[in-house]
Write a structure and sequence with these properties.
Structural class: alpha+beta
Distance between the termini: 57 Å
CATH topology: Porin
Number of domains: 1
CATH architecture: Beta Barrel
Helix content: 10-25%
Number of helices: 2
Strand order of the largest sheet: 1-2-3-4-5-6-7-8-9-10-11-12
Radius of gyration: 16 Å
Oligomer: single chain
Length: 183
């Protein structure tokens, strides 16, 4: 089912953490769950996502030249590759053809978007880190509603936001531990 058709009643697409402190998320439209993102382990970057009956695995790889790979089920080849840029953002190349750029829209890094090569916004995320659960509201640009890669971008954008939040938490923990050890 088309993601826009599935959520045409005026309800919003929202990613929400299934349980506090879990690495399992569901994509909802109103009362209906229409997708998920589940990390395989409590630590690590391997995750499985499904949106609109399409399924992928995501994994961050590399140290000196980090990237995130996207694979279709039971495949050993990369369907898409995301190459991050220094300071945030990056470019996602899908199937060797389509390019989408991941951009931060605000100073606090709570709003992100995929834009195309013409710098037209395709999909944006407004992230909310609650006290117990993380969530994000999605906004699909009307002109991008027919974009064939939209389900992948919906899942992948949230994956990138979760990784960024995990990284920020690790930095805070390391800084706190270092400060405590010095004091």
């Amino acid at each position: 089912m088309d993601i826009v058709t599935a959520c045409s009643s005026g309800a919003f697409l929202i990613w929400i953490q299934a349980k506090s402190r879990s690495r399992s998320f569901k994509l909802t439209c109103g009362e209906s769950q229409i997708g998920f993102l589940n990390f395989e382990k409590s630590c690590g970057s391997l995750a499985v996502a499904e949106v609109s009956s399409q399924r992928w695995t995501f994994k961050r790889v590399g140290f000196l030249a980090p990237r995130v790979t996207v694979r279709e089920p039971d495949s050993d080849s990369d369907f898409a590759i995301f190459r991050p840029q220094w300071g945030g953002g990056g470019t996602c190349e899908i199937d060797g053809r389509a390019h989408f750029h991941w951009r931060c829209l605000d100073f606090w890094q709570t709003q992100w978007a995929f834009v195309n090569d013409d710098n037209r916004r395709v999909l944006s995320f407004s992230h909310h880190q609650g006290f117990f659960k993380a969530s994000a509201k999605l906004e699909i640009d009307e002109s991008a509603a027919a974009e064939s890669q939209l389900p992948l971008l919906i899942a992948f954008g949230w994956y990138l936001m979760v990784l960024a939040a995990d990284d920020a938490t690790a930095v805070i923990a390391a800084t706190t531990a270092t400060t405590a050890a010095i004091a």
